[in-house]
Design goal:
322 residues, alpha/beta, Rossmann fold, five-stranded parallel sheet, 12 strands, binds NADP nicotinamide-adenine-dinucleotide phosphate
Length: 322
């Protein structure tokens, strides 16, 4: 008998076909996220789940007595309750590598967009305010040759560093729990302790995964260390930053601007203070969202799931479940 898989979000037909070669497939076809109650009900007979953000915790697992594997179409897996999955022996996989360059490109969209005030100036032009030359009120900051600090320089961070060093000739520092001597010599990047990185950088890019250790890693104290001219970019997860402290830092001039792809609550509530702040550039969590990369991620997630359910070791089991 074939294993049964539930797919909880829309995926390309090729991805579904790949799973269907080996498994019976049921799927959610709505455009919004599947309601939690329905997801739990759908898992009653499932051996595998293909998802991209649904919380996999003890509650879900009690509703899924046959579940053996969960494959997420994302590199971040903070929605996996690792202890609960370990206890049940669930195989959990993710999609590293294939999205590195795409997410790094988006980091630069946010860096350039905030530094050169692209969204503000777009509004200025479209609202018919460009009557004579744009005055110095609209001047931005240079990205080239500026100092970039990367918090969490892993796969994506290195792709950001490469662009920064060799494209924009920036001075790049990074902070991780452990040093990366190979990256230091190949990319010409410097290791700095977190406080030092915050003090020195013109741009700080947050790319550490969300873990108990990184939750609100950047708060009031950290923003106070940054230069008044500095720009903060978050493309990891919203919860790595204390949003209240960020709002305060932006409103008081402690830092100049922020470029955000991720938020504490997603989708961001319509009355969130960020949405009325000109010095905040907001994107709707689209770091990896190009057609090609999202296709590759979904295909890789499908392959991981098929392998897990057909007795082969998937290539991308999340480290804590290996
Ligand atoms: P990765 O290769 O695992 O890199 C993460 C880096 O963070 C590692 O170098 C790690 O180094 C460092 N790190 C982990 N815990 C840390 C801590 N407590 N303090 C400081 N550094 C720490 O992951 P990746 O593939 O580059 O992805 C990074 C994150 O980007 C994902 O987890 C996800 O949250 C986010 N992401 C967002 C989008 C989006 O759409 N916005 C898309 C893709 C990924 P050490 O272990 O040495 O500390």
């Amino acid at each position: 008998m074939k294993p049964t898989v539930f797919i909880d979000r829309t995926v390309p037909s090729e991805v579904e076909a790949k799973i269907a070669e080996y498994c019976d497939v049921d799927k959610w076809e709505g455009t919004n996220r599947i309601p939690r109650e329905l997801l739990l009900a759908k898992l009653a007979n499932a051996d595998g789940l293909l998802t991209a953000g649904s919380r996999v915790d003890a509650e879900l697992l009690t509703h899924a007595p046959q579940l053996k594997a969960v494959s997420t179409i994302s590199v971040g897996y903070n929605h996996f309750d690792i202890d609960a999955m370990k206890q049940r022996g669930i195989i959990g996989t993710h999609t590293p590598h294939v999205l590195n360059n795409t997410v790094a490109d988006l980091a630069f969209a946010l860096i350039l967009g905030t530094a050169r005030r692209v969204a503000e100036l777009d509004r200025y032009v479209k609202e018919g305010k460009w009557i004579s030359g744009a005055g110095n009120k609209w001047f931005g900051q240079d990205v080239h040759h500026a100092k970039l600090g990367i918090i969490g320089m892993g796969r994506i961070g290195e792709a950001v560093a490469r662009r920064a060093r060799f494209g924009f000739e920036m001075e790049v520092s990074y902070y991780n729990r452990s040093r990366k001597p190979e990256a230091e010599s190949l990319l010409g990047v410097r290791y700095l302790e977190l406080n030092e990185l915050l003090r020195e950088s013109d741009f700080v890019v947050m790319l550490a995964p969300l873990t108990p250790e990184t939750a609100k890693l950047i708060g009031r104290e950290q923003f106070r260390l940054m230069k008044p001219s500095s720009i903060f970019i978050n493309i990891s997860r919203g919860q790595t930053v204390d949003e209240e402290a960020l709002i305060e830092a932006l409103q008081s001039g402690t830092i100049t601007a922020a470029g955000l792809d991720v938020y504490e609550i997603e989708p961001i509530p319509a009355d969130h203070p960020f949405l009325s702040m000109d010095n905040v550039l907001t994107l709707p969590h689209i770091g990896s969202a190009t057609k090609a990369t999202r296709f590759d991620m979904a295909m890789l997630a499908a392959q991981n799931l098929v392998n897990a359910l057909t007795g082969q070791t998937p290539a991308h089991i999340v480290p804590e479940l290996q």
